[in-house]
C-alpha cells in the first residue's frame, strides 16, 4: 500500500485517530470527487493482521462507486487488485451504517474470474 502525497494533506494529527506523516496507517478527511468529504481510515497490515485495509464513510449515505474508485487510487497503484467483501451473514459487523471497506491480503494474490465472466472486451469500455 502506498499513500499518495495528496493524502498527507488530510491526515488527522490530533485526537484518537492521530498519526504522523510517513506512518502506514491513519485517519483522513479527504475531499471526494463528488463534492463530499470522505472519512477514511487506513492501515497497511502486519504479521498479526496481514491485510491492507481502507474504510470509507460519509455521515448520511454509503460511498458510491466513483468515490470508492477515487480512494482506491489514493492508496493503491492502478494495477493492484483490491476487493470489497460480502461475508456470510453470521460474520457481519456493522459499526457504522454508511461505511464501505477495501481490502488487499498481503501474503497472497486475490484470485480473479476469467475476463469473459465479467464482460466482453470486444465491446469496449463505456
Outline the secondary-structure elements.
Elements: H1 5-8, E1 25-31, E2 37-43, E3 51-57, H2 65-75, E4 99-105, H3 115-118
Antiparallel strand pairs: 1-2, 2-3, 3-4
Provide a descriptive summary of the structure in words.
With about 130 residues, this protein is an alpha+beta fold. The protein has a single domain, classed as Streptococcus thermophilus LMG 18311 protein like. It is about 15% helix and about 20% strand. The chain contains 3 helices and 4 strands. The protein has helices at about 5-10, 65-75, 115-120, and strands at about 25-30, 35-45, 50-55, 100-105. A 4-stranded antiparallel β-sheet has the order 1-2-3-4, covered by helices on one side. The longest helix is centred in the middle third of the chain and has 11 residues, at about 65-75. It is globular. The two termini are about 30 Å apart. The model has no long low-confidence stretch (mean pLDDT about 95).
Amino acid at each position: 500500500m502506498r499513500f499518495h502525497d495528496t493524502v498527507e494533506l488530510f491526515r488527522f494529527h490530533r485526537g484518537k485517530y492521530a498519526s504522523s506523516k510517513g506512518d502506514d496507517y491513519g485517519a483522513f478527511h479527504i475531499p471526494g470527487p463528488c463534492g463530499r468529504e470522505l472519512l477514511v481510515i487506513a492501515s497497511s497490515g502486519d504479521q498479526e493482521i496481514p491485510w491492507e485495509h481502507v474504510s470509507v464513510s460519509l455521515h448520511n449515505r454509503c460511498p458510491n462507486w466513483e468515490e470508492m474508485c477515487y480512494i482506491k487510487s489514493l492508496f493503491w497503484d492502478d494495477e493492484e487488485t483490491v476487493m470489497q467483501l460480502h461475508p456470510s451473514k453470521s460474520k457481519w459487523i456493522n459499526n457504522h451504517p454508511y461505511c464501505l471497506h477495501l481490502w488487499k491480503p498481503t501474503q497472497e494474490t486475490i484470485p480473479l474470474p476469467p475476463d469473459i465472466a465479467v464482460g466482453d472486451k470486444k465491446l469496449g469500455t463505456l
